[in-house]
Amino acid sequence: MSKNAKVKRFANRAEKAAWWEANEEAVASAFEKAMNESYAGPCTIVVTGDATATKICLGSRDVAKVCVQATKRGLRHHIYLKRIIHEALRKAV
Which residues, other chains included, contact 81 with Cβ-Cβ below 8 Å and sequence gap of 6+? Predict the structure, then answer.
């Protein structure tokens, strides 16, 4: 993965969402390739709510674990992360 990769700019959220949906498989493949070649670094996850946003920073090892565990369960990594968070919140009550 190139360190000089260009950042994709979008006009609005709808355009961004459409791009991610259309390119999800290609992005996942590129990410897996980068993980296999030890190019992946830390990951920042932004969780948005009604009027708030929370950033969660994960190290590359945690990201790799999430991807492996999600794949074993036949899930996409973002859906798997959402499930993990929901489970933890239910148990914390």
Answer: 45, 66, 70
The pTM for the full model equals 0.47
Phi, psi at 2, each rounded to 5°: -75, 135
- At 24-56, the pLDDT tens digits run 777 777 767 766 666 555 665 666 666 666 777
Give the residue carrying structure tokens 């914390």: 92
What is the sign, positive or negative, of the torsion defined by CA atoms of 79, 55, 3, 10? positive
- Which structure tokens are listed for 7? 């950042």
